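User: I'm preparing a small set of examples for a lab meeting where we compare how different chains pack in three dimensions. I only have the primary sequence for this one, and I'd like the structure in token form so I can line it up with the others. Please keep the answer compact; I'll paste it straight into my notes.
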Amino acid sequence: MTDSKGFGGNRVTALPEIRMGIVGVGKMGLLHAAIFNGLPGSRVVAVADPSPLVRNTFASVNASVHAYPDAETMLSAGEVNAVVIATPVADHVPVALECVRRRIPFFVEKPLAASAAQGLDLVAALGQAPTPHMVGYMSRYIEAFRKGRDLLATGCLGRLQRVTATIYVSQLFTRGRGWRYERQVAGGGVLLGQGSHLLDLLTWYFGPVGRVNGEMLSAYSADVEDFAHVMLEFRSGLRGWVDCSWSVRFRRTVETSIEVLGEAGSLALTDDSVRLFLGKPANGLAAGWTVWSAVDLYRGVEIDIGGPQYTREDQAFLQALRAGTLPEPGASEALHVQRIVDAAYESARRRGAPEEIAHD
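Assistant: Understood. Below is the structure token output for the 360-residue chain.
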């Protein structure tokens, strides 16, 4: 067992075998359980879920995986040395705080919290007791979006002028059922649930946002928004907008797009393509159009369940734990995304009035 520098100068112990516990055994909990169980050096040894049906099913399928009614009971058993938090959003921070109290590394599904105030409590706790952790903004691990960031880092577009981004899926066309459509549990609707992926990518690319204007529309939901449009002003001065909806027809899967305009060219990104146009050669890149498809960008993974990006983010979490380094993104970055969303909701309540975002 070795020590490595990390977390603001604190020593973090690398783990030889990572024994995973899964808190919340819904769609995402099962997905991460399957991936971590299939990756070398990690093993799912426990799950926690309030449903007796879920616990009994696990016990009948695999007696070596112990099932608990709640996270605290599972953590107290002392058999896990890392945790996946895949509960409803309002429970993310309470479970994460329990992990911090016990210094147990955790991977928490996005969004970080139901509100920025709740997320701030976690960031403050991590400041007092640095604990290895990661927030599941998996779009950073989609090859096209990582390629886009690499291209932007070259400065090939010159001075940036505008960025626009959309995320759409055909999910909801009647009254939604379940916790995802309850603001008290989910924290918000499509902007927090899906649009936050875009906001994470854009702040990863361009840095923090200083001001927003937001508009929300609830076409089917009583408690959360089904459409969201947010104008963004980054602290760098760059401006743009984000549009998202889970009620757009003919989008069988989630479709994400980002377009960046600059003085020297443009860059268009989707989940499976990168299109770069340059008026003249720059930084080793040719003038005219250069296009990379999903085939050009593909890198294989050991196990693919739901998409290679989920495997890559789980691998990054495991690798960071073994090396004693900090995986990305962390809670501080996710808190800034949360603040953008909260500000957009407040702006919408004020009929689109501009809302400033506090410095982190």
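A couple of notes for your slides: The first strand starts at residue 3 and ends at 6. Confidence is low (pLDDT under 50) at residues 1-14.

User: Perfect, thanks.
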